[in-house]
Design a protein that fits this description.
Pfam families: PfkB (PF00294). This is Ribokinase. It comes from Gimesia aquarii. GO terms for molecular function: ribokinase activity. By secondary structure, this protein is an alpha/beta fold. It has one domain: 3-Layer(aba) Sandwich (UDP-N-acetylmuramoyl-L-alanine:D-glutamate ligase). Helices cover 33% and strands 25% of the residues. The strands form 3 sheets. The protein has a 9-stranded mixed beta sheet with strand order 4-1-9-10-11-12-13-14-15, sandwiched between helices. Helix 9 packs across helix 10. The N and C termini lie far apart (40 Å).
Length: 306
C-alpha cells in the first residue's frame, strides 16, 4: 500500500494537569482535572491527517511499561499503520507531565524521551520509498537522517517539524523539502530573532518551503519566490499543547492537496488556533468541515512580499 504520509519520530504519553493557575515555587495548588493522552509532534500531526482522510503509517517505538499498550491502542484506533513500529522490551515509553494554566492559557512541560528508539537499519525502506511524503521531528537523530536520505533518493517529499533544536539539525536540514519551526528555533539555531532573516537563512540551507510560527502573532511562510504572513485566528486559548504539531499536520495536508500557498498558510493557522480552544490533542482536533467554515467566513489578514 502507498501511504500519503509516513511518520518517523517520538511518541510520548502526556499527562495533562489543568490548574486554575501555576502555583508559586515550593507551594501547593488544587488540580481542576487531569487526563492522559498520546502525544509527540509526528503522531499528533498524523492523527489529524488520518482524520482528514489521508493514509498514514508511523515508524516508531514504545516501551513495555504501563504506557506501551496505551500508545499502541491509541494510534491503531486512529487508523495509523503500525506494521513498521514495535514495542521495545525492557524500556520505558516517553512521558511528559503538562501543567496547563487555565487563567493564562499557557502550559509548562516536564518530560523524558524514550530510553530506546528504532535504529536506522530497522527502518522499513519500501514503506518510505512508496510514500508521497515523510514527516520527521528530528529525533532520534540518526534514524531521522537515514529516513530523510532514503526519501529524497526515492523522490519522496521530506517534511520536518523542528519544535526545538536537536543534535544533527545542520546535517538534516539540507535534505528537507518542507520545514516548520517556532520563532524561538531561530534564536537557538541561527542566533537571530529576526523572522525574515531567519526564514531566508533556512531556505538557503536546502528546504523549498519554510514556515515559522509565532503564537498569537500568526505565522510566516517563505519560498524562494515569496514571503507570506497570516495573522492568527483570535480565540480564547485553553491549551496550547500540540498547537505546533497540529499546524504542521494542517500544513502538510494543504501541500498534499496542492493548494495555493496563501490558502495553505491560513488553513494551518486556523487549524492550530481552533485546537487551542479545547483541552488536549485528540478531542481538541477540529474537524475538516469546521476549519473550512472558518476559512470561508473569517478573513484572516494576509501580507505578501515578492
Amino acid at each position: 500500500m502507498k501511504h500519503d504520509v509516513v511518520g518517523v519520530g517520538t511518541v510520548v504519553v502526556d499527562h495533562l494537569v489543568l490548574l486554575s493557575q501555576h502555583p508559586e515555587q515550593d507551594a501547593k495548588t488544587n488540580i481542576i482535572s487531569d487526563a492522559y493522552q498520546i502525544g509527540g509532534p509526528v503522531p499528533t500531526a498524523q492523527v489529524l491527517l488520518s482524520r482528514f482522510g489521508k493514509a498514514c503509517a508511523f515508524i516508531g517505538s514504545w516501551g513495555d511499561d504501563q504506557y506501551g499498550p496505551l500508545i499502541e491502542q491509541d494510534l491503531a484506533t486512529e487508523n495509523l499503520n503500525l506494521e513498521a513500529s514495535r514495542m521495545l522490551a525492557g524500556t520505558r515509553s516517553g512521558y511528559a507531565q503538562v501543567w496547563i494554566d487555565e487563567q493564562a492559557g499557557t502550559r509548562t512541560i516536564a518530560c523524558y524521551r524514550p530510553q530506546s528508539c528504532l535504529q536506522p537499519d530497522e527502518l522499513d525502506l519500501k514503506l518510505i520509498q512508496r510514500a508521497k511524503a515523510i514527516h520527521l521531528d528530528g529525533w532520534p537523530e540518526k534514524t531521522c537522517f537515514a529516513a530523510a536520505k532514503i526519501a529524497r533518493q526515492a523522490g519522496v517529499k521530506v517534511c520536518l517539524d523542528a519544535g526545538s533544536l536537536k543534535p544533527g539539525m545542520e546535517q538534516l536540514i539540507p535534505y528537507l523539502n518542507v520545514m516548520n519551526c517556532p520563532r524561538r528555533f531561530l534564536t537557538e539555531y541561527l542566533q537571530t530573532d529576526d523572522i525574515h532573516t531567519g526564514g531566508r537563512a533556512l531556505l538557503e540551507q536546502g528546504p523549498e518551503l519554510v514556515t515559522i510560527t509565532d503564537g498569537t502573532q500568526g505565522a510566516w511562510l517563505f519560498t524562494n519566490e515569496v514571503c507570506l504572513h497570516s495573522a492568527a485566528l483570535p480565540v480564547l486559548s485553553l491549551d496550547t499543547t500540540g498547537a505546533g504539531d497540529v499546524f504542521s499536520g494542517a500544513l502538510i495536508y494543504g501541500i498534499l492537496e496542492a493548494w495555493p500557498l496563501d490558502r495553505t498558510l491560513k488553513f494551518a493557522c486556523i487549524t492550530a488556533a481552533l485546537k487551542c480552544e479545547r483541552l488536549g490533542n485528540r478531542d481538541a482536533l477540529p474537524k475538516l468541515a469546521e476549519i473550512e467554515a472558518v476559512l470561508q467566513t473569517r478573513d484572516l489578514p494576509l501580507s505578501r512580499w515578492d
